[in-house]
Amino acid sequence: QVQLVESGGGLVQAGGSLRLSCAASGRTASSVTMGWFRQAPGKEREFVAAISRSNNIYYEDSMKGRFTISRDNAENTVYLQMDSLKPEDTAVYYCAADRQSVTWHTRAWQYDYWGQGTQVTVSS
Q1: How far is CA 89 from CA 3, 5, 51, 82, 84, in A?
Q2: 71, 69, 60: which is closest to 30 by C-alpha?
Q3: What is the three-class DSSP state of 40?
Q4: Which residues of the chain form beta strands (DSSP E)?
Q5: How far apart, in whole angstroms, are the C-alpha atoms of residue 97 and residue 32?
Q6: 30 pLDDT higher than 90
Q7: What contacts 108, CB < 8 A, 6 or more positions away?
Q8: How confident is the model over 31-58, as pLDDT tens digits?
Q9: Which of 115, 113, 105 is nearest to 38 (CA)?
Q10: What is the mean pLDDT of the segment spanning 25-32?
Q11: Digit-coded pLDDT (tens) for 71-111
Q12: In sequence order, which residues have a C-beta less than 8 Å from that of residue 74 and are 6 or more positions away?
């Protein structure tokens, strides 16, 4: 089992930055691939980025350049640095854990554990 707790969301003006954190706990927390998703009202949950336990990284193409995922294995924490935020980035952001690491997973159903989400609101 892996437990995930996100933090760092909030209200920010367009062009601003936020850093989200996801603290993982549990026996296998340090060995899983971690991902970030987001879900805007009325839309499907959308893949943002993922990072393996060895710090290999995969981004959704549209997220490259403004979003940066990173990981501190000693602290079992994954981060999502978001820069140059736009109103369309407004969503609930979720951290997720994927027990398998052979291929990159980008669908929500492929992830095994989820956090409760943290709201990010970008005002224009």
Answers
A1: 25, 20, 20, 9, 10
A2: 71
A3: coil
A4: 3-7, 10-13, 18-25, 33-39, 46-51, 57-59, 67-72, 77-82, 91-98, 113-114, 118-123
A5: 6
A6: no
A7: 37, 44, 45, 47, 96
A8: 889 999 999 999 999 999 999 989 999 9
A9: 115
A10: 82
A11: 998 899 999 999 999 999 999 999 999 988 788 999 999 99
A12: none
Centre a 10 Å sphere on the Cβ of residue 13 and count the other Cβ atoms it contains: 10
pLDDT at 28 over 80: no
Sign of CA dihedral 31, 111, 55, 37: negative
Helix/strand/coil for 70: strand
Which residue shows structure tokens 């969503």? 91
Q: What is the pLDDT of residue 100?
A: 85
Quote the pLDDT of residue 103. Answer: 87
User: Which of 19, 24, 42 is closest to 112 using CA atoms?
Assistant: 24
The CA distance from 34 to 49, in Å, is 9
